[in-house]
Amino acid sequence: MTQSSILILGAGIGGLAASIALAQSGHDVTVIEKHPGLRSSTVGVGIIQQPNQLRALAAIGCADACIAVGYAAAYSAKHLDADGAVVRAIPGPRVAEFPEIAMNGITRPKLHRVLTERALAVGVSIEYDKTITAVRPRRDHVEVDVSDGTTRTPELLVGADGVRSIIRAHVYDEPVEPAYSGKSVLRINVPRLPEIDAILRQERLGDDGERIGVGFVPLADDLGYMYLNIVWDRSVRPDTEELRELMRSYLAGFGGPAGVVRDDYLDAADEIVLRPEEYLIAPGPWHRGRIVLLGDAVHAVTPNTAQGAALAIEDGVVLAEELAANDDLESALQAYGDRRYERCKRVVDYGANARKWEFDPTPDFDPVEEGIRMREAVVAPF
């Protein structure tokens, strides 16, 4: 497909990655973002960059920069008992491009900075504090009304606007909405303790038999984050102090790194992030006419997969590849969806099934072994 004008809604990870890949292919790319600036458009604590994400980042010229400001680990994960003793170490799969790295941890602000700087360097225009107010498909373009009062006429509109996508309604006749896993995740930044040299997972059983899982991710030489998965009514939104006491109650009975954070660092945490765990796999095709979706807009995953950002970045790379490989837009967008659907569905299904297993453990599903198989599958070329 020849050089085209492309408008992307959403300057998150997927939108920025797609903008870079498309601009590298010679397209004229503009990104519209509802938040007023780079800092306010980053939501969350940190990102686990599995090998397939690093490979996708390499395709858009961002992998080395991420590794330079992150924490590259030689092991993918370690499982600890409630007292902090290592009971299993998982080396994790590798990709040829980064044979020594099992995962790279990075803060969201640093990742967004790397992606934004690269996007600007390859000629992407990013417009903050704006959104799309109306979409009118036409034969050879899309009329897009923007909140600044302008009307844009891109040849392709990309919805990279997340799990609550407003562009999704222009692709599907019926509503497509995410499902709640029944669990939410609490996250706080913590100093990187010496033992946090990979993704750590500690578990214990509560008095009522509930499986309580707490984990750690290294983000830099001196920084990590702790996450705590809890059964939660998503309509309840406690304040920071209530969340602090909630975390303290769940961390009771833990030794090891969880106990250290509880006793030495929890009181000092100035921000505690609470997010519901949702999942979604939208049916194909992921496009209609000159409108196409990517990232969480079509395949939101639960965080136990550590694949949400990776899949979104891969989407952008594949979209650019298929636009370059096909002479007509319809064939390119169909090929993009065909390449992505089963890969993304496998990850979504694993995450959802692992969460369901935590509520109702069955002998026919082992979340650890299934997770290993899923991660081995996604290191295959995308």
Task: Quote the average pLDDT.
Answer: 96
Q: Which word captures the global form?
A: globular
Low-pLDDT runs of 5+ residues are none
Q: Note the beta-strand portion.
A: 25-35%
For the largest beta sheet, what order do the strands appear in spatially? 6-5-14-15-16-13-17
H and E order? EHEEHHEEEEHEEEEEEEEEHHEEEHHH
Describe the sheet with the most strands.
7 strands, mixed
Number of DSSP strand runs? 19
Radius of gyration: 21 Å
Give the terminus-to-terminus CA distance. 21 Å
**Which bin fits the share of residues in helices?**
25-40%
Tally of individual helices: 9
Helix-strand makeup class = alpha/beta
Description:
The protein is 33% helix and 27% strand. It has 382 residues and is α/β, with parallel strands linked by helices. The strands form 4 sheets. Strands 6-5-14-15-16-13-17 form a 7-stranded mixed β-sheet. Helix 1 (13-24) packs parallel to helix 4 and helix 2 (51-59) runs parallel beside helix 7 (308-325). The longest helix has 31 residues, at 329-359. The radius of gyration is 21 Å and the shape is globular.
